[in-house]
Inverse folding.
C-alpha cells in the first residue's frame, strides 16, 4: 500500500523578510536528520529520494517545499515514525531549534566536495553570494512596500465594514463547524504556509492539503474580515481540544489564509487571489463576506480608487517577484560551481545509511 504525501511550506519570502515556521512542523519528533552542505551538494534530492521511498513502503509523509526554488525541498517528516529530515543551512537557523526530546544527527554532504577545486573559484562564490543577498534585500523591501499599498486597499473596505455582521457570521460558522463537540486533550497546533512567493510567482498547495475534506471557500475583499474570522475559528478549535493546522499568509504572516481540523474533516480558507478557487467539489461551500459584511455599493462607489490601488499593488509585486527570479538564476550559477566539485557517490552512501536508519525505526515501531 502506497502512503500519502502532504505538501506545504514552512518558510516564506514575505513583506517582513524571510519568515520561518519550521519549528512548528518539527514538534514531537524523536529523531531529526540535519543535512548540511553548500548549494548543489544534493540536500534536496536526498530528502526527496528518501521521502519517496518511505511513501512506497506505505508511510504517509510531509514534503516541506522551498520558497526559493520551485523544484527543491526544505524538509521531510514521517509523522507516524516521529522522524524527519531538514536542510540545515541558511535561511533556517538550526541553532535556534529546540527539540529537547529529539536525537539530532548532523549529516555533512560537503564531504563530497573537492576543497582544492572550490578554492580556485572562491572569489566567484563570494561574488555570487553577495549578489544573492542584495537581490533578496530588494525583494523584501519591495514586498514591504506592496504591503503598505495593500493596507490602503484594506482601509477603504474597513471604513465600510459592518463589524457586528462579521461577528455574527463568524459565530454561525463556529457553531456549524464544532457544534457542542469537544475533546478531552490539549490541542496540537501546527503553524504553516499553504503557499509562497517563489521565483515562478505565487504558488499554493490548497488542492493537496484539502483533499478529502469538506471545504469552505471564503470570498471577500481586502479588509473584509477573512483573516480575523479564521483566527477566531482556530481559537475555537484549540479551546475545544482539536488539533488544528493554521496556515499563515505567505505575503503577510500576521494574517491567516486557512484553517484545517482533520478530526472534523473540514478546511476553511481565504479563496481569493493569489490562491483563488471556486467550488468544484460537491461538498464545497462558499462564505461570502463581502455580501454579508461590507456596505452595499462600496465597490462601485470607490471603483476609481480601487483600480489605481490594484495597479500600484500589482506593479510592486511584479517587480519584487522579478528579484526572486534573479535570486534563482544566481543560485543556479552557484550550485553549478559546487556540482562540478562533487563526488556524488559519497552522497549516495550517506543517503543509503540514512534510509536504512529510518527504515529500522519503522521496523522497531
Amino acid at each position: 500500500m502506497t502512503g500519502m504525501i502532504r505538501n506545504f511550506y514552512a518558510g516564506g519570502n514575505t513583506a517582513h523578510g524571510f519568515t520561518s515556521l519550521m519549528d512548528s512542523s518539527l514538534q514531537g519528533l524523536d529523531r531529526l536528520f540535519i543535512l548540511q552542505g553548500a548549494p548543489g551538494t544534493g540536500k534536496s534530492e536526498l530528502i526527496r529520494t528518501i521521502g519517496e521511498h518511505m511513501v512506497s513502503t506505505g508511510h504517509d509523509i510531509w514534503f516541506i517545499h522551498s520558497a526559493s526554488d520551485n523544484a527543491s525541498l526544505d524538509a521531510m517528516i514521517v509523522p507516524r515514525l516521529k522522524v524527519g529530515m531538514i536542510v540545515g543551512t541558511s535561511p533556517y537557523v538550526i541553532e535556534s531549534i529546540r527539540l529537547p526530546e529529539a536525537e539530532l544527527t548532523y549529516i555533512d554532504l560537503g564531504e563530497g566536495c573537492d576543497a582544492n577545486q572550490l578554492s580556485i573559484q572562491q572569489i566567484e562564490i563570494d561574488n555570487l553570494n553577495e549578489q544573492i543577498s542584495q537581490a533578496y534585500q530588494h525583494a523584501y523591501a519591495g514586498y514591504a512596500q506592496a504591503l503598505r499599498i495593500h493596507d490602503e486597499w484594506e482601509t477603504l473596505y474597513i471604513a465600510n465594514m459592518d463589524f457586528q455582521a462579521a461577528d455574527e457570521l463568524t459565530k454561525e460558522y463556529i457553531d456549524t463547524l464544532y457544534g457542542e463537540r469537544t475533546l478531552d486533550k490539549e490541542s496540537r497546533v501546527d503553524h504553516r504556509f499553504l503557499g509562497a512567493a517563489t521565483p515562478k510567482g505565487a504558488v499554493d498547495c490548497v488542492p493537496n492539503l484539502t483533499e478529502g475534506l469538506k471545504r469552505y471557500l471564503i470570498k471577500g475583499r481586502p479588509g473584509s474580515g477573512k483573516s480575523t474570522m479564521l483566527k477566531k475559528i482556530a481559537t475555537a478549535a484549540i479551546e475545544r481540544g482539536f488539533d488544528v493546522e493554521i496556515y499563515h499568509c505567505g505575503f503577510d504572516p500576521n494574517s491567516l489564509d486557512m484553517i484545517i481540523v482533520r478530526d472534523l474533516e473540514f478546511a476553511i480558507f481565504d479563496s481569493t487571489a493569489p490562491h483563488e478557487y471556486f467550488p468544484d467539489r460537491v461538498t464545497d461551500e462558499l462564505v461570502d463576506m463581502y455580501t454579508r459584511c461590507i456596505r452595499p455599493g462600496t465597490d462601485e462607489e470607490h471603483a476609481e480608487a480601487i483600480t489605481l490601488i490594484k495597479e500600484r499593488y500589482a506593479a510592486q509585486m511584479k517587480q519584487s517577484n522579478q528579484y526572486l527570479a534573479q535570486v534563482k538564476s544566481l543560485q543556479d550559477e552557484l550550485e553549478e560551481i559546487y556540482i562540478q566539485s562533487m563526488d556524488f557517490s559519497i552522497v549516495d552512501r550517506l543517503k543509503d545509511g540514512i534510509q536504512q536508519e529510518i527504515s529500522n525505526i519503522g521496523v522497531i515501531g
Observations:
- The chain has two domains: 5-113+343-364, 161-294.
- The first strand starts at residue 5 and ends at 9.
- The chain has a mean pLDDT of 95.
